[in-house]
């Protein structure tokens, strides 16, 4: 049911964007967005959106992803380049998950660039859940992944299916921004990897002021806390 509710939210935007054609194939609505830092200071960005060109899209438009990726010196340019190279206007309003390579949590330039990007682009959903990955971005954003639905929805369903995590306590983009300004917060961010071509979450990264400070096992987190935002004793 939630897939059809999301589709009802997305499709009306096609007719409200003011584009000349108004045809759905002129737009992409990424539900998953990945970012990793390159050695030269640039950022490699990955996008996964519902594949409306798929022959089965008329029956279930959220059953399969189309993918794209771009490299740019800053994150905003990456989105603009994705729109130009794919001939689709990228709209990030319906983003479900932000996936960051663990190298982005360096506590310095990458983290600062990330916060500035989201503060300056408030049209990108701040309610999107945040996950980390460890050099798995190429594999995640590929047709090899078998989920039976768009990856963004698949990962959202994993996170929201954790009954022992208190509702509303999953880490979001908004929590990342908050942590940058509030050093008393420590975040437990799910780490996604690939097992037999299926995304899985088997551990959490401990993130302290946008710095990767280690790892905690899934069972340890579930048994010790009902929230993934922890307040440190100062």
Task: Describe the 3D structure.
With 234 residues, this protein is of the alpha/beta class. It contains 7 helices and 11 strands. The strands form 3 sheets. The protein has a 5-stranded mixed β-sheet with strand order 4-3-2-6-7, sandwiched between helices. Strands 10-9-8-11 form a 4-stranded antiparallel β-sheet. A two-stranded parallel sheet has the order 1-5. Helix 3 crosses helix 6.
Give a brief rundown of this model:
27% of the residues lie in helices and 29% in strands. It is of the alpha/beta class and 234 residues long. Strand 6, helix 3 and strand 7 form a beta-alpha-beta unit.
Characteristics of this structure?
234 residues; alpha/beta; disordered N terminus
SSE topology:
Elements: H1 2-10, E1 27-28, E2 32-37, E3 43-50, E4 65-72, H2 75-86, E5 89-90, E6 97-101, H3 109-120, E7 129-133, H4 137-140, H5 151-160, H6 173-181, E8 185-195, E9 198-208, E10 211-217, H7 218-224, E11 229-231
Parallel strand pairs: 1-5, 2-6, 6-7
Antiparallel strand pairs: 2-3, 3-4, 8-9, 8-11, 9-10
